[in-house]
Amino acid sequence: MQVTASAPGKAILFGEHAVVYGKPAIAMALSKRAQVKVTGRLDKKIQVNIRDLGIKEYINLKENIVTSNSPEKGILKYVLNSVKSVHQESGLDIYIDVNVPIGGGLGSSAAVTVALIAAVSKYNNIDLKKKEIARLAHKVELEVQNYASPLDTIISTYGGLIYLKDAKKIISLDINHDIPVVIGFTDSGGNTMCSTDTGKLVGAVKIRKESYPEIINPVIGSIEALTIEAKEAILNNDKKRIGELMNINHGLLDALGVNTLELSNMVYTARVAGASGSKITGAGGGGSIISFCPEGTEEVIAALKKIENAFKSDISKDGVKTTLKEVR
Ligand code: PMV
């Protein structure tokens, strides 16, 4: 038996960091998807091939280790914990193509985790509902990273465009128009999964909030207000407002202290090249930007590629998908 599964990466359009304080956020599933394939083997080993990173390793569920135990192969921790959550003994060959840029706040670890949990559970004839896949995947992210909001794993599981109300209630925004975006990201070229950076940045914002409560609390309140406004702008396809609100959100993220020179460069390069709005996406401190490009997509991609890397994405309506095939 062979099971394949895929799950999308994500980008936060509005509300990152404020969501940590119970405020709303808007996120979308990206067109880039992690792909996994699971087949059985005659021995009891579990071999993991991550093709785009050139990784070929064994994981040992009983002893909870990766054979190399090499820290730079952080992605294998997600793989180990994901497989463990739905599998016990028999041997497996696991093939993974991450496809989503790694370590840049685009939900690569969540996409791999969600796809793996879906594939391995299906291989074991366990019928997991999406809610359960999202729950298990979030648990894996917490185990590996210590800190993780459920946003990445929710988007990877359900796909589409999601408004997370009060940081917990999932409201799917069903729109008939597209939200064309360009993602700019730093091509680190490494093969790690950043497992601690988000936690560190969330911690840094907390310190700033505690040091300047009268200044930072209103900033977080403003992010809340603009996210609520952005939801209406998106539903009404008000492109001008969507772009403006993104720009305001970027300024407020800068005030929270998560901007960097390289992110700023990308944000302004995208605007100069024609994006209606652009901002940091995700935790910041490096990583990625998102720009809203109802027009001039190619120009924005070309300009970003001159300094870093970029790709175009639409909202992927599909969340996690699995296919089962009998192989002889
Ligand atoms: O960079 P990411 O994808 O890990 O996004 C983090 C978003 C935060 O709001 C900063 C934290 C969170 O878990 O929601």
| Biggest pleated sheet | 9 strands, mixed
* Helix-strand category: alpha+beta
Termini separation: 8 Å
Beta-strand portion reads 25-35%
Please count the beta strands (DSSP E, at least 2 residues each): 13
Query: Briefly, what CATH class of the largest domain?
Result: Alpha Beta
> What proportion of the residues is helical, as a percent range?
25-40%
How would you summarize the topology of this molecule?
Layout: E1 2-14, E2 25-40, E3 46-50, E4 55-60, E5 65-66, H1 75-86, E6 92-97, H2 108-123, H3 130-145, H4 151-158, E7 161-165, E8 169-172, E9 181-185, H5 197-211, H6 213-235, H7 239-256, H8 261-272, E10 277-281, E11 288-292, H9 297-307, E12 309-313, E13 321-325
Parallel strand pairs: 3-6
Antiparallel strand pairs: 1-2, 1-13, 2-6, 2-7, 3-4, 4-5, 7-8, 9-11, 9-12, 10-11
Helix pairs in contact: 1-2, 1-3, 2-3, 2-4, 3-4, 5-6, 6-7, 8-9
(3R)-3-hydroxy-3-methyl-5-(phosphonooxy)pentanoic acid binds at residues 16-17, 19-20, 105, 107, 148-149, 151-152, 198, 202, 282-283, 287.
